[in-house]
Amino acid sequence: MTPFAERLLAWYDRHGRHDLPWQRDPVPYRVWVSEIMLQQTRVTTVIPYFERFVERFPTVEDLAAAPADDVLALWSGLGYYARARNLHRAAGRIVAEHGGEFPCHREALESLPGIGRSTAGAILALSFGERHPILDGNAKRVLARYHAVDGWPGRTAVAKELWELAERHTPSQRVADYTQAIMDLGATLCTRGRAACERCPQAADCRALALGRQAQFPGRKPPQKSRRLRTAEFALAWDGSAVLLERRPDAGIWGGLWSLPEIGDEETAEDWCRRRLGAEPPAVERWETVEHSFTHYDLHMQPVLIRLDDRPGAARDAGDERWVELNGGTGMGLPAPVRRLLDRLGDLGV
Asked: What is the DSSP string of 187-242?
């Protein structure tokens, strides 16, 4: 065991997190769900989502048998919805190809949707106690600083060096504790912002600290030339009690979620209503712009409230388009900004 691993485990025994919901019963299914949710999301945000999710889908069979809409509804607000779709697809494959038993080999796990090398390693280490290194965002930051590894981890050469270091430090004993420990250290002390080096168990040997360059590791992603901005109008077609929603295609933003219909760039809200619903809108009201950021671009949503006297027959109440009553909530997978708009619509009692 390397001195790095020894110090990390000693620190974890006194200061690590030992009572996270997925630690209480670390079967592969629960660990897998938690690892997918924790990708690019903080533990404090994940905990209530995880608890609701495993209460509704306590086993991989339950998840595989559930409609995709139910899965996305429980994921709504957590973001990065491809994670939920991959989770659902992977559950179906685990049931169909492995009889509901989680694969215990890294290659088999990596063949499932949404599971890469680090996630597979975490599942095998935390659930089975097998020795597999991990390299999530926290581990990358800890190792990059401790060894002063220059460069953005997204570059092949840098990632290769970090994987070699992860392999070197992962011990043969207490591998589950070590795996949780390196994630905890990155999440609580060796953070992206100001690192708490004065409390870090690795401070004596940390190269970044010795150089006074903690903030420079790991290297940052090269900046994009410019962020794209997209502006679009979205129809709040409202008949006094229900709003028209449509399911978005799997590819693109909010894939598979229910959203407000998007009005074409070349038409007015009135034209959209005539074309889509075959109705003449008695009143149209434009709400203030809602700004929402994605990984690669910003979206400016222009909500347009279209007050209708009744539900036009042109809209199908089935498939990928339906009228939804707002009383008591929709129970559907909705993007966070759309959910807020519907809440506002309900609160106004328009």
From this structure: HHTS-SSS--GGG-TTGGG-HHHHHT-GGG-SPPPPPPS--EEEEEEEEEEE-SSE
pLDDT means over runs of 10, the chain (350 residues): 97 96 95 96 95 97 95 91 94 96 93 95 96 96 97 95 98 97 97 94 97 94 78 89 90 88 89 86 86 85 89 63 80 89 76
> Are the C-beta atoms of 330 and 259 separated by less than 8 Å?
no
- How many domains in the chain? 2
Q: Are 5 and 142 in contact (CB under 8 A)?
A: no
Question: What CATH number is given to the structural domain containing 330?
Answer: 3.90.79.10
Distance between terminal CA atoms of the chain?
66
Distance in angstroms (rounded) separating the CA atoms of residues 272 and 306: 10
pLDDT at res. 35: 97
Per the CB < 8 A criterion, the answer to whether 51 and 221 are in contact is: no
The string of DSSP letters for 68-85 reads HHHHHHHHTTS--THHHH
From 187, 216, 245, the end of a domain falls on 216
The catalytic residues are: 35
Range of the structural domain that residue 322 is part of = 228-348
Residue 277 covered by a domain = yes
